[in-house]
């Protein structure tokens, strides 16, 4: 059962990484226009070069 | 020149084709905001952004599809009015928004805060659930104790942070000695934590850390959905308020200055251009024109206006520029005086108790009594505080209104989302429930069933020659009748005759010279004709007797279908208008409405609606004008189109975003289905309580059963809500 002393911290750290990633997405306004962003990926307007 | 300069110093050519759009490319200092009710797909985004970016002066444009808005960063001298035609050419309806009125940041913060708490609760409950699974699958002794302690270490801070909204709300209710839904929730969470800590410190078998966290998570999910629905409605309502950008042109020593309406004072001279709306009450001092008063009174016939004529705020100037002297501004205008009538009508509206409120009223005391009784019962039976407390906690957790908390928000979110896509904005929280009960629909005529746009009726009876002269004269004017005549004549492939010396005489019409003869198109009296009952424009060629062009108000798109669909679903449809008997009767006959009332004053509309309500009818009022405002407030539920006056939109529960009326009939069905789903959800939650509560009371409810029952009921309730079509 010694493996638990490694597994439990690992699982907690992985979970915390997920939580932090989510907090980052919220803070960088990625939920402002969910519908538009889902569709923008289908448009090929700026595929060849970035928007100036 | 984008707001966010992207470092495009790619080291390799391939990197240029990397992820294109940065995560936050919303122009930062937005100067112009446009509402685009018609956009719906990815092609729309590209078309709109490309059309806007191609316009000189636009630095950056970003479309938000969820909110159906375009935010534009532009050169300081660019106006929204310059961009609207650009989008109209691209095929999109656009309206100007006041960027200052869209204070998105404030509402955003509250939503983000809830989302953050939801995320923390989700993270913690997953971790604790993982630990609990190992306990349920047989971990024992020291391992079990260690798992419980770790769970406690995660659960305590997580709940302290995530469950704050419940703590605050419950404390608020207790302070004024009342019970709300949050009191049993907080009690359950706190009791579960305390007994679990106690059990853990005694190396006990049962700990409810996972249950307390899952409970918080599901309840927060319900809160968040509820918040989202309201935030969408609020932001769209803000958008409607922002649609009216109130400015006026003040004459200062012969110079024209544009000022906000709020700065006008009594005695100011104000210039109102053709097509403009009167910002204040006043008297005409200069100019001749015609006024469209349909939003105030429902009359479709424009009235003649000359110096000395009194005008009220909200009337639209049609032909010539007018200078008016303000006699009442702001709150004193006749527009605002109508608000008193609304206040009276609103106090008459019966207080509606929402389904959720009536459920909570039954529920909250029941939960406390049941839990207290099981504590007392077990204490007397076993004489052990620990067992009794454990069981009381189990009962509270099981009965906690977890599914109930999701039952209503999940359905209203689904339903309002559907209706928003169809172009309806639900402004009021209980509007859907009330809409489901409707059995009588009362329509206003002008601006609601009709588009407020004249349509020519006797094109076939005209000679080509008359038409071509009329077209030449009409082209020179922006009067609605002239515009309509031009459109009809062009559609019939009429070529304009060559008329010289074209002049528009404001308030009367246009005149010119054709083949050496004087030709006039305009008001009956001006050309020497006698006025009939119908809206008309007259053409006089030389000394010949004048010919009349007759007009009727064009129907709003979807009006016929809506009336037919409402009648087919067994609702009684009525028409109450302030317009003349002839016009109302003709429209009623055209739409097949048997019950109509013409020449109704605002007061008449309210009394009629109240009388019908007194007969036990549930009335849906659809109207747009100021004369409808009080009736809108008095009805059981009310709808107004986005083109309505601000006052009418504020008074109504639902706003139609597009120009089409047809979503109304569908909305009634959706509302009925939504209410049925809410009731079903309450039933599901009750059934689950009936099964699980006896188990909890007799002490057979382990944390595993509690977790299973809670999750299944919450998930069934959410899935049931998603079934809504």
Please state the second-level CATH architecture of the domain at 419-450 and 557-663 in chain B.
3-Layer(aba) Sandwich
Distance between the termini of chain A: 58 Å
Mean pLDDT of chain A: 83
- What is the CATH first-level class name of the domain at 419-450 and 557-663 in chain B? Alpha Beta
What Rg of chain B is obtained from the alpha carbons, in whole angstroms? 32 Å
**What's the assembly state of these chains?**
heterodimer
Number of helices of chain A: 2
Structure, described:
The complex is a heterodimer of chains A (52) and B (725). The mean pLDDT of chain A is 83. Chain A is an all-alpha fold and 52 residues long. Chain B is an alpha+beta fold and 725 residues long. The N terminus of chain B is likely disordered. In chain B, strand 24, helix 21 and strand 25 form a beta-alpha-beta unit. In chain B, helix 3 packs antiparallel against helix 4 and helix 12 packs parallel to helix 24. The longest helix of chain B is centred in the first third of the chain and has 35 residues. The chains are: A mainly alpha (52), B alpha+beta (725). Chains A and B meet through helix 1 and helix 2 of A and helix 1, helix 3 and helix 4 of B.
């Amino acid at each position: 059962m010694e493996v638990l002393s490694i597994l439990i911290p690992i699982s907690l750290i992985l979970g915390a990484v997920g939580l932090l990633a989510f907090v980052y997405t919220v803070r960088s306004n990625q939920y402002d226009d969910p519908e538009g962003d889902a569709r923008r990926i289908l448009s090929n307007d700026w595929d060849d070069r970035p928007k100036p | 020149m984008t707001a966010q300069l992207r470092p495009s110093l790619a080291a390799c050519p391939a990197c240029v084709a990397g992820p294109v759009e940065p995560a936050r490319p919303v122009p930062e200092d937005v100067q112009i905001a446009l509402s685009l009710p018609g956009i719906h797909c990815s092609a729309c985004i590209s078309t709109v952004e490309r059309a806007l970016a191609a316009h000189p002066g636009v630095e950056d444009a970003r479309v938000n599809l969820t909110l159906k808005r375009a935010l534009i960063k532009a050169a300081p001298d660019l106006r929204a009015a310059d961009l609207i035609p650009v989008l109209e050419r691209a095929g999109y309806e656009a309206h100007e928004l006041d960027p200052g009125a869209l204070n998105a940041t404030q509402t955003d913060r509250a939503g983000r805060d809830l989302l953050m708490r939801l995320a923390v609760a989700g993270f913690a409950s997953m971790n604790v659930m993982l630990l609990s699974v190992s306990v349920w699958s047989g971990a024992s002794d020291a391992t079990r104790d260690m798992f419980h302690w770790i769970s406690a270490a995660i659960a305590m801070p997580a709940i302290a942070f995530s469950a704050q909204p419940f703590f605050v709300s419950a404390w608020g209710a207790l302070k004024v000695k009342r019970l709300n839904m949050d009191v049993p929730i907080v009690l359950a969470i706190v009791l579960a934590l305390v007994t679990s800590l106690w059990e853990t410190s005694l190396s006990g078998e049962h700990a409810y850390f996972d249950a307390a966290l899952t409970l918080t998570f599901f309840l927060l999910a319900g809160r968040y959905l509820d918040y989202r629905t309201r935030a969408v409605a609020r932001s769209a309502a803000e958008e409607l308020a922002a649609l009216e950008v109130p400015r006026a042109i003040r004459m200062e020593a012969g110079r024209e200055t544009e000022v906000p309406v709020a700065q006008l004072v009594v005695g100011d001279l104000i210039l109102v251009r053709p097509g403009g709306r009167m910002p204040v009450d006043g008297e005409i001092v200069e100019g001749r024109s015609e006024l469209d008063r349909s939003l105030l009174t429902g009359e479709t016939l424009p009235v003649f206006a000359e110096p000395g004529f009194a005008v009220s705020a909200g009337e639209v100037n049609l032909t010539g520029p007018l200078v008016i002297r303000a006699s009442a501004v702001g709150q004193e205008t006749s527009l605002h005086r109508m608000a008193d009538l609304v206040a009276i009508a609103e106090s008459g509206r019966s207080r509606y108790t929402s389904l959720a409120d009536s459920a909570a009223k039954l529920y909250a005391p029941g939960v406390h009594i049941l839990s207290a009784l099981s504590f007392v019962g077990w204490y007397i039976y076993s004489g052990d505080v620990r067992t009794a407390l454990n069981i009381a906690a189990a009962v509270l957790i099981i009965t906690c209104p977890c599914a109930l908390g999701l039952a209503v928000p999940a359905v209203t979110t689904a339903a309002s989302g559907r209706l928003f896509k169809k172009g309806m904005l639900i402004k009021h929280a209980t509007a859907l429930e009330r809409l489901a009960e409707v059995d009588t629909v009362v329509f206003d005529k002008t601006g609601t069933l009709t588009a407020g746009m004249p349509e020519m009726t006797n094109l076939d009876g005209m000679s080509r020659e008359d038409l071509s002269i009329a077209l030449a004269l009409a082209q020179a004017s922006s009067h609605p009748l002239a515009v309509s005549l031009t459109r009809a004549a062009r559609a019939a492939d009429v070529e304009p005759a060559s008329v010289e010396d074209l002049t528009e005489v404001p308030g009367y019409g246009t005149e010119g010279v054709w083949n050496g003869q004087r030709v006039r198109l305009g008001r009956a009296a001006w050309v020497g004709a006698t006025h009939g009952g119908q809206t008309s424009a007259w053409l006089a060629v030389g000394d010949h007797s004048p010919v009349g062009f007759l007009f009727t108000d064009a129907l709003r798109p979807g009006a016929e279908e809506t009336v037919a669909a409402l009648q087919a679903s067994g609702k009684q449809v009525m028409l109450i208008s302030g317009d003349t008997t002839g016009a109302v009767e003709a429209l009623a006959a055209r739409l097949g409405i048997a019950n109509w009332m013409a020449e109704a004053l605002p007061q008449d509309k309210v009394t009629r609606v109240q009388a019908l309500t007194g007969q036990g009818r549930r009335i849906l009022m659809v109207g747009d004008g100021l004369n409808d405002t009080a009736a809108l407030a008095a009805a059981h539920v009310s709808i107004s189109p986005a083109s309505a006056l601000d006052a009418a939109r504020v008074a109504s529960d639902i706003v139609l975003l597009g120009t089409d009326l047809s979503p109304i009939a569908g909305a009634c069905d959706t509302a009925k289905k939504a209410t049925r789903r809410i009731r079903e959800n309450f039933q599901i939650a009750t059934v689950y309580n009936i099964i699980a509560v006896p188990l909890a009371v007799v002490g057979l409810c382990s944390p595993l059963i509690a977790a299973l029952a809670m999750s299944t009921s919450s998930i069934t309730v959410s899935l049931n809500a998603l079934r809504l079509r």
